TrEMBL record:
<protein>
    <submittedName>
        <fullName>Amino acid ABC transporter ATP-binding protein</fullName>
    </submittedName>
</protein>
<keyword id="KW-0547">Nucleotide-binding</keyword>
<dbReference type="InterPro" id="IPR017871">
    <property type="entry name" value="ABC_transporter-like_CS"/>
</dbReference>
<dbReference type="InterPro" id="IPR003593">
    <property type="entry name" value="AAA+_ATPase"/>
</dbReference>
<dbReference type="Pfam" id="PF00005">
    <property type="entry name" value="ABC_tran"/>
</dbReference>
<dbReference type="InterPro" id="IPR027417">
    <property type="entry name" value="P-loop_NTPase"/>
</dbReference>
<feature type="domain" description="ABC transporter">
    <location>
        <begin position="5"/>
        <end position="238"/>
    </location>
</feature>
<comment type="similarity">
    <text>Belongs to the ABC transporter superfamily.</text>
</comment>
<keyword id="KW-0067">ATP-binding</keyword>
<dbReference type="GO" id="GO:0015424">
    <property type="term" value="F:ABC-type amino acid transporter activity"/>
</dbReference>
<dbReference type="GO" id="GO:0005524">
    <property type="term" value="F:ATP binding"/>
</dbReference>
<dbReference type="InterPro" id="IPR003439">
    <property type="entry name" value="ABC_transporter-like_ATP-bd"/>
</dbReference>
<dbReference type="GO" id="GO:0016887">
    <property type="term" value="F:ATP hydrolysis activity"/>
</dbReference>
<dbReference type="InterPro" id="IPR030679">
    <property type="entry name" value="ABC_ATPase_HisP-typ"/>
</dbReference>
<keyword id="KW-0813">Transport</keyword>
<dbReference type="InterPro" id="IPR050086">
    <property type="entry name" value="MetN_ABC_transporter-like"/>
</dbReference>
Amino acid sequence: MEPIIHIENVHKYFGRVHALRGVSLDVQKGEVVVIIGPSGSGKSTLLRCINRLEEFDKGRIVVDGIPLDSAENINAVRTEVGMVFQQFNLFPHLSVLENITLAQKIVRKRSDSEAVKIAMDLLEKVGIPEKAHAYPAQLSGGQQQRVAIARALAMNPKIMLFDEPTSALDPEMIQEVLDVMLQLAREGMTMVVVSHEMGFSRNAADRVIFMDGGVIIEEGPPSVIFSNPTQERTKLFLSKVL
Ligand code: ADP
Ligand code: MG
């Protein structure tokens, strides 16, 4: 089967920093891939290359059959890929509902009533329909992150990218966000998730990828990577985070 994400020998430089040093990765439709690794290992850069928030210097990325090689194609890919960041990045001056309807109306050209209907269904799904008319500052971090997920889902993405979505949250709010992600995974969404939440990985990940120094060091099912990694660098990293 053709992978929905194909990454082939991708290199990325920031000046003299060689952030990605030949990364290759295929993700199948419906697969949930979790990326772990130390700070600075290139996890965010790799994720950002997938929807071309970051340009890469060498290699090839093809998303759902579309190569990231022209402005037109990059725009096409971006409409298929949703992204959720560590910092929720909601528009502070817009209500929750407006946050979730804005891009639907502009990019998807949906009518106001259609966009509102979709937004309300998604707020129901992430468990906070009563917050539709609140502003981001009136919500907890966990609620804001659930709005950010709803906003991304409103665009009907084929792929969802999550970059440490629970790292900025107080501990008691982490699970409510992971539960939404877990549900999404069970519904068959293709997901690439940078996260060190082992519980989530064990429950949701088909594959865990360990990155260090801009390369993939090893990968495998969570049961193997967390309990029986073969590489010393993976063992060392896990001994620090587990
Ligand atoms: P991770 O997400 O695994 O912590 P990153 O992908 O953010 O790692 O960073 C990989 C490397 O690239 C690091 O050395 C980091 O300092 C560098 N880097 C990332 N973004 C930039 C940037 N915008 N400008 C310069 N260097 C960057
Ligand atoms: Mg990062």
